[in-house]
Amino acid sequence: MNNFKKIGVSALAGSLAVCSANAADVSVTGSLAVTYTNQDTTEVTGNPLGMDNEFNMNISGEMDNGYAVSYMMNMGEQAGGMDSAKLSVDMGDLGKIAFDQGSGSGLANYDDMTPKANEEVWDGLDTSASGLVGTLGSSGRIQYVKSVGGMTIDAAYGVGSATNNADGATSGSGEGGGYSVGLVVSGDTLGVDGLTIGGGYGETEAGAGVDDNEDTAIFATYAMGSVSVGFQRNEITGGAAGATEQEADIYSIAFNVNENFAISYGEKNTEFSSTTAATVEEEVDGVGVSFTMGSMKIAGNRNEGKKLGGVATAEDVDTEIKLSFAF
To answer: DSSP assignment of 90-153, as one string?
Structure first.
């Protein structure tokens, strides 16, 4: 995206003035979109046309010791409220540490790494989060990122629920806190061009007398010319005795027809199992397309799901077309 506004100021914002800064750069980027969305297979009252807005404000500067400080705030949807934010300190060879308010950290960044032309195959469906790792979430979390050669580690740590972190007015008992770690290794390190592998693990405190929630993920993607393929296995366990465990397999293939047009197809099959109920497999598939011309993009998805959330009779369909302009 092109910078909408860039100015120099003498110091970081007041909230960043813990230590001195030489200068700060401010930039605003974003996109405006008109959308068409048709959900479910039954007739409902409503208007399928809407508008989707997204704005990102970025502030960055350098401290006297050479560390770089940056702040990102995302404002989305028509209401214009803050969706997410992140305050980061880049310590050079020591890595980057950040306080994250929902922009993505730890295993939450790797819930579905399979290639796609637009949105994921589960986007817009009821219970779309089934089989996706990242139970810890990324709101109110401390993140640490370090890259060495072609390997990147992304770790997140939280001391309590993501809902108890606004300004100290509320506090929690530690339930909902925990940690997660994601690891990605590029093909350059492995000696195989186009290959990327990775995975991760996380634990989330579930409460007294209940097993912690555990998330595990492994994935691999391979790009050869204009074609990319990917596979991911996610597992979610833990909770009270007899709690439902989830095991998801995600596949996809994406094809760049040319530098402007791309198409993809994917599937996500999630097995819901427990000691107190019969095993049910959720079946999700979808196709996505995108066409880009300068700052304009036309993209769409049609996703379908059956046995959603492990309920044999639950079905949903989501069709979405979006015309967006980036700046």
So the answer is: E-GGG-EEEEEEBS--GGGGGS--S--SSS-TTTTSTTTTTT---TT-SEEEEEEEEEETTEEE
Q: For residue 219, what is the domain's CATH number?
A: 2.40.160.10
pLDDT along the chain (327 residues), means of 10: 40 42 79 86 73 87 91 73 85 95 92 95 88 90 94 93 59 76 92 94 84 93 96 90 87 96 97 89 96 95 94 92 92
pLDDT recorded at residue 111: 94
- Specify if 145 maps to a domain: yes
- The pTM score is 0.83
User: What length does the chain have?
Assistant: 327
Residue 192 lies in a domain: yes
Range of the domain at 99: 90-326
- What domain count does the chain have? 1
Domain assignment present for 26: no
Q: Is residue 29 part of a domain?
A: no
Distance, CA of 77 to CA of 82 (rounded, Å): 9
Beta bridge partners of 298: 291, 323
Q: In the prediction, which pLDDT does 81 show?
A: 58
What is the H or E stretch that residue 197 is in?
strand 195-204
The DSSP secondary structure of 39-97, one letter per residue, reads ESSS--SS-SEEEEEEEEEEEEEEETTS-EEEEEEEEETTT--EEEEEEEEE-GGG-EE
